[in-house]
Design a protein that fits this description.
The structure is a single chain. This protein folds into two domains: 1-52; 55-129, no CATH class. A hairpin with a 6-residue loop joins strand 1 and strand 2 (103-105). With 129 residues, it is mainly alpha-helical. Helix content is 47%, strand content 8%. The protein has helices at 2-23, 26-52, 81-91; strands at residues 94-96, 103-105, 109-110, 116-117. Strands 1-2 form a two-stranded antiparallel ribbon. A two-stranded antiparallel ribbon has the order 3-4. Helix 1 packs antiparallel against helix 2. Bound molecules: zinc ion. Residues 55, 57-58, 60, 97, 99-100, 102 line the site of zinc ion (ZN). Keywords: Membrane, Transmembrane, Transmembrane helix. The chain crosses the membrane at residues 29-49.
């Protein structure tokens, strides 16, 4: 989802910079540059957070754009595989990996030493915790 916020900030920055150059006002150009910096920082946060969430079967991060071939069972939402994964995570607590096609429920796993691991995990039907 952060990538869509970054894209919105990027488009707003381009519009603000364009309006600032058209109206020849320095404050609009500076606001546009600040929005551009915010878009860049938001995109970096997205890359760091999304790279940690991996599919438990194929270990590919489903929220990042990879050059791998998608599964035949993979479905899109508004033309985006990542948006479908993000929607599944937010609203159903589960997602289908677009790369291997494996459905995965989100669950909190306990670490062997008693810590709590809140990463993605638990393949449906595998019986593993
Ligand atoms: Zn997978």
């Amino acid at each position: 989802m952060l990538v869509f916020i970054a894209a919105g900030l990027f488009l707003a920055a381009l519009g603000e910079i364009g309006a600032g150059l058209f109206h020849d006002t320095r404050s609009e150009v500076l606001t546009g540059l600040c929005l551009l910096g915010g878009a860049f920082v938001t995109f970096l946060i997205h890359v760091v957070v999304a790279s940690r969430a991996r599919c438990p079967l194929c270990t590919i991060p489903p929220l990042l754009k990879k050059g791998c071939q998608k599964s035949r069972k993979a479905k899109r939402f508004f033309g985006s595989y990542r948006l479908r994964v993000a929607g599944g995570i937010l609203f159903r607590g589960a997602f289908q990996c677009p790369y291997c096609g494996e459905p995965t429920k989100l669950m909190v796993r306990e670490k062997p030493l008693g810590g709590i691991d809140s990463q993605l995990g638990g393949t449906e039907g595998s019986g593993l915790r």
